[in-house]
Write a structure and sequence with these properties.
Two copies of one chain form a homodimer.
Chain A lengths: L6 E6 L28 H9 L9 E5 L3 H7 L8 E4 L5 H15 L4 E6 L3 E2 L2 H16 L4 E6 L10 E8 L3 E8 L4 H10 L2 E11 H11 L1 H12 L6 H8 L8 H10 L3 H4 L1 E6 L3 E2 L4 H12 L6 E10 L5 E12 L4 E5 L3 E6 L6 H10 L7
Parallel strand pairs in A: 1-2, 1-4, 2-3, 6-10, 12-13, 13-14
Antiparallel strand pairs in A: 4-9, 5-11, 6-9, 7-8, 7-9, 8-10, 14-15
Chain lengths: 369, 369
């Protein structure tokens, strides 16, 4: 495979993933779980990109709670490029920092931004798409976003409205939209030129740095000061003091939306339509669907346990390793057991599991979060 | 309280109670569980009767699987009066043996037969009723059965049809009926002279011995032979060899039903209408109802756990000691967790939990039964 020596994968791994409680915890977030196969989500993310970049070119942005586990799970990556933010500031400052740091070493750096908690079925197709994206991004002031071809009227994602074709197989981005209501999502699905925003972007470090200077000048200045101390004794202290002063904002809101407002011809944002079996595994329910699609169990149930027996039961998702699980007359349930907790919910309502974590946070039940 | 020095409580404790799996096991049957309060069901049974008979007058009929736990739970009772049947032969041989053994010591013995896995809310009322029953039984060839005044058209119990009043507050028994269908159960409830068969009986040992000789002559002869060796070296061997040859039949089928067919005037079977808050706690669902009636939780849920949080959830029964339990969008569930097993069923279908045990028996998963 032809690779670009200036391509740097930046893995975003600061999320908490509370909807996978009780399996996910503050120090063991969703991306650190093996929800699909033997590797954890972040290990899969790195393995998928490994043919495109040597380990030394990976950067990981995370937080202090998760950094130790990430270092354990990814021993091949350089530990000092796994950076713990002193405070969560959303994606704009995180990837901005990566851009300013990379620029010091490689003025031609092309950054790839990758969430660490998605699954992708077809890694080869993913890399082929990415290869085209890297070429477009490397060519100049372009921003490339991987757009997932929608398969259902999903209301939980942001969408990209695409316009005219450009380059090889890419489309000019007309605008980014917020999460739509169901009727709008159906229109998007029917229209054919709307794509799910995957959160995966490609751009040159200098393009990103310039965009930050234009749209978030104060944050850009803070990040430049931090980056300037990298490799010195003052870095840790400067990072801890200045980073929390950055604006708490996503790259979508800070840069992509205002830039796309310039119009599709001016904004130089390109969407690469992608068909590589992407799923964000956003909840126990999505995970259940994902596994059912792969394993096709006759009763629609997935039971991870030491043994099980089901009577008049179907479409259940059970995670209770080490237990014998008996299901009698229950359907469409999500049942997840850990050493200290037991969750029982439904496939319909599993997206509310985050509220359990909110409750535990409020009650300061720290051992459980 | 006036007590009868010839009264001997015989506790029937050989049942398995599979509907309380996974809490109940072969060696920890329902009667050995503390399903209602701190004492186990069999401890409550003995405590309830203690004011009526000294510990030395209690007999317990059980099996080898359960005997060790019973001795541990009831250290005050004489161990050699806790008898393990070499093979389960239902109630007729069990209480027949007790009768023949008691007759050797006390020709005037009055036996009280008590299942060990029921709850009774009002112990004082229970003992008052029993006191009247003991008087009637002691008076001669009478059989006294405690009939529970029905509170709902229950189809899971046998019923007693009562006839004319007799003695002080007792009714002559017209006949014993099998478990009715719902329409019949409703008729019984409306009629007012039908009672639930509690399984609690009182009769003189010689009355019972004679009835056995009449209705089960072969079994009576075997039991007499066994009883004759009691206190000798030959007892264990004789018991092991002869007892399994006894007929496998309940006292209801063997004696009470044919005897009641003689007509209410001739049969000398008396029903004592009883109102002492009896429940057989026949399933997780009955247990849930029992506790809801006592504790009256606002959401109808009972959760035994180290902590819990419910969101859009009601009428659940949860037993998961040591776990934090989160219920999101689920109602009318029964969730029971032990060290090695997890059961999830519904209040509607919990009576089918016995089928899980049947499956485990068939699969020879001995550690789980």
């Amino acid at each position: 495979m032809k690779t670009n020596p200036h391509f740097y994968p930046v893995i975003l791994a600061g999320g908490r993933g509370t909807r996978f409680w009780p399996l996910s915890r503050k120090r063991r977030a969703k991306q650190l779980l093996a929800l699909d196969g033997k590797q954890t989500m972040i290990q899969q993310t790195v393995a998928r990109l490994a043919p495109l970049a040597a380990p030394g070119r990976f950067w990981v942005i995370t937080n202090d709670d998760l950094r130790p586990a990430i270092l354990r799970q990814l021993p091949e990556l350089p530990a000092k490029q796994t950076i713990a933010e002193p405070a969560g500031r959303n994606t704009a400052p995180a990837i901005g920092l990566a851009a300013f740091l990379l620029l010091r070493h490689d003025p031609e750096a092309v950054l790839g931004l990758f969430p660490s908690d998605h699954v992708i079925a077809d890694s080869a197709e993913f890399r082929a798409t990415l290869g085209r994206g890297i070429e477009i991004a490397a060519a100049g002031e372009n921003i490339v976003v991987l757009g997932i071809r929608p398969t259902r009227p999903e209301t939980g994602y942001g969408y990209i409205e695409a316009g005219a074709p450009d380059h090889d197989s890419s489309l000019r981005v007309r605008r980014f939209t917020e999460k739509p209501d169901l009727a709008t999502a159906k229109q998007f699905l029917d229209a054919g030129n709307y794509f799910w925003n995957s959160g995966m972007f490609l751009w040159r470090a200098d393009t990103l740095a310039n965009a930050l200077r234009e749209y978030l000048p104060n944050t850009a200045s803070l990040l430049e000061k931090i980056a300037a101390t990298r490799g010195t004794r003052r870095f840790a202290d400067t990072f801890r003091k200045l980073y929390p002063k950055c604006e708490n904002i996503s790259v979508d809101y800070a840069i992509l939306e205002p830039r796309s407002a310039k119009g599709e011809a001016q904004s130089r944002i390109f969407c690469l339509p992608s068909d590589f079996g992407w799923s964000d595994l956003g909840s126990w329910t999505t995970l259940h669907e994902h596994h059912v699609a792969k394993a096709k169990p006759a009763d629609g149930s997935l039971v991870s346990a030491s043994g099980s027996f089901a009577l008049n039961a179907k479409n259940n998702y059970v995670h209770a390793p080490g237990k014998f699980v008996a299901l009698v007359g229950v359907s469409n349930l999500v049942i997840v057991e850990t050493g200290d907790a037991l969750l029982v919910t439904t496939l319909d309502q599993s997206q509310d599991v985050g509220k359990v974590v909110k409750h535990l946070d409020e009650k300061k039940l720290k051992k459980l979060v």
